[in-house]
Model the fold of this input.
Amino acid sequence: MLKLDKVSKFYSQNGVVTAGFSQVSLDFEIGEFVAITGESGSGKSTLLNVISGLDSYEEGEMYIYGQPTSGYGASDLEEYRKRHIGNIFQTFNLINHYTVYQNVEMVLLLSGYEDSEIKERVDSIIDRVGLTAYRNTKTSKLSGGQKQRVAIARALAKETPIIVADEPTGNLDVASAQDIIKLLASISKEKLIIIVTHNYEQVEPYITRKISMHDGRIAEDKRIKHTQIVPEEKVEAPSVNEARHGALSKKNTLRLGTRNAFSLPAKFILLLFVFIFLTTGTFASYSAYIGMREGLSTNVWGMTFENVSPERVVLTKPDGTEFTEKEIEEIEALDNISYVEKHDILLDRPFDVTDNSAISSYLGYSDYYGGEFEYEEVDYWISSFIKGLNALPEGELVVGRLPENENEAVMVLRESSWTAENKMDELMSVTSYLEPMFGGGFPADGLNMPVDIVGITFFKKEPNSSGLWTEGNLIMTEEGINRVEKLAVIGGTITEAKAGDRILKVGYSYYDDVWLVADESIAKGTVEIPRFVSDLVSEAENNVSLGLSGGSSVGKITLRVRKNTFDRTKELTIVKVNDDDERIRVNPEDLWALYEAPPVKQVSAMLESSLYQAETRAVLETMGYEALYLNETADKEHPLEKALIRAMRIIVIVFLLAVLFFVVYFITKLIMKSQNVYYSTVRMLGGSKGACSGTLLAELLVVFHIAFVICLAIMIKITMAGSSILPAYAVRLIRYISPTDYVILYLVVLFMTILLAARYSAQMFKQTAMNAYREEV
Done:
């Protein structure tokens, strides 16, 4: 039934070819108990490995039931071992963290047996080898003789016609060795038993045939006893019912994977930490990705609104009427509304602190020009004393007091900006001047507001995205806020001048045609214009028309300013044409009147969390308001910048996930090294690549799901109740993750887990089962 015809096995190492054995011709039949002997290096173990399908051969032919095997590939050899060969190893090759029952059961699972068939079959075989009392004992706790009995039971369980054993008594005491040989002899009546041994005297009373090897060749082939051997022509391959070679079912794949996940507690804990790290890292990368998406609109500014904070929703009324205090209170009472900012325009307008180098130099804002330091202006946002982002009780001031009139303010700075606390008084010793920053419109030269710094404090937390460009905040009284809002209107308005058929931009830089200047020498109600503007007007008309308000009377101009819902005009009489510059000069009081703060027709509802902005907007719209979520407006502005930044964002997250994957892979590979012997053993017992890969994947999936549930529970808790351990920014990022995002994250980490298993499996099957086992032992 098994025949070798001039079979040779060669090894190649470092360019040197050596023979394991050569030109071996042998015939074996059922009912034989064959002992192969010879000195070390004679080739007997190599011959046994070729017979058992653990090693290939290079010359000759080996037949099983008349079928040649020289063309067998890896999958064919797996089937050959599963269907025909039962292995008993000198080192037992048991799964030490499995029980006796589980070790025997495993070969039946790998062969495709159903659960209903396994229990009775395994118990019967365990009883046959005398280990019933140790059925549920882990094999790591058994003696050498008992372990070898388990190995024999495992070989018997497959019902294969051939059992091969390499030095089955080599590690046993005399008594245990005698029992094992007797057991094998009793089995040989119905199978072909081939053993390799150094101790021929020990097996001589029981064997039917002796094969001696020397220097890779057969030196002797001697039959010791005549046994009733079935002629080859009457021998048929065992039926599928006798030696099954089916596949490991999906249910049993999950069963083995789950068993492996928990069988070694230390390995499970390490893997659990690794997958918690993988899941948390993926969560963090994704939440940062979502946060970057929110932040893009903050950094890619819109043309109408500079502040496109993810917490800001701009509200107007369809009929264009003003907001009442009652309506503002009703909005503030809604869930997810932090407060309503009535001074909506201040959210789009930071201010420069001018004529105060003490503040700039103290905070270190300076540039080096031509060998000298020139101090930059410091940018501030204005916060209402009552409802501002940084409103604080008096006891939290670092120095000074709270503001009492419109020209006083408390300065709120980052604590990291301070270098010497003894200079705090110096910061409050000089009057500052607020001037609106260069922005979507241009301010009038000469209009500013003096502000005395009467107190200093630190941010309770870093300014959020409401603080674009800001280096600090000024907390002021409501009267001061109203006054500053006029400056904000100046800084945010668009003013145009029309002279004849030419439209002129009125602004505050050399990019504009004319500048608008506040000049106290100009009488109220009058205006002084430059010569070139006058020349643009025809002699016949003898008039200048400024603004978009239509025609003007002779000798008069109309200035018009507009910003969002704000739109105001003022007619002035031309009293002088200036030959010296390109400035339109107006009395400061006329400008203040022109830029009077608008009525409260537009407010900003500031959200507690942008995560629920859609739901909050829906509620506001049902209340009759028009709600614009500003974080979405930047999508319509600067499309090229948005596309480039979005592409960069995708590249960054892919890079982070790739780094995370390979870090986790190498750590997992180190942890799973303890399982290499396990999978090598499974392969030698007939386990296919699919069975090993599936079991490995099932094991990692079990650990992954436990880790994911743990992380999910933590994330939900943080989302619901926050965390005193994590910084506020991290909590905020976590809150960006929606239920849909959790599904996406699950799929991402699941995919990475599958990749981990696939990559590890590919490494595991790069070599033969025997070579992989040799490397591990």
The first helix runs from residue 44 to 51. The chain is about 40% helix and 25% strand. The chain has a mean pLDDT of 76. The radius of gyration is 44 Å.
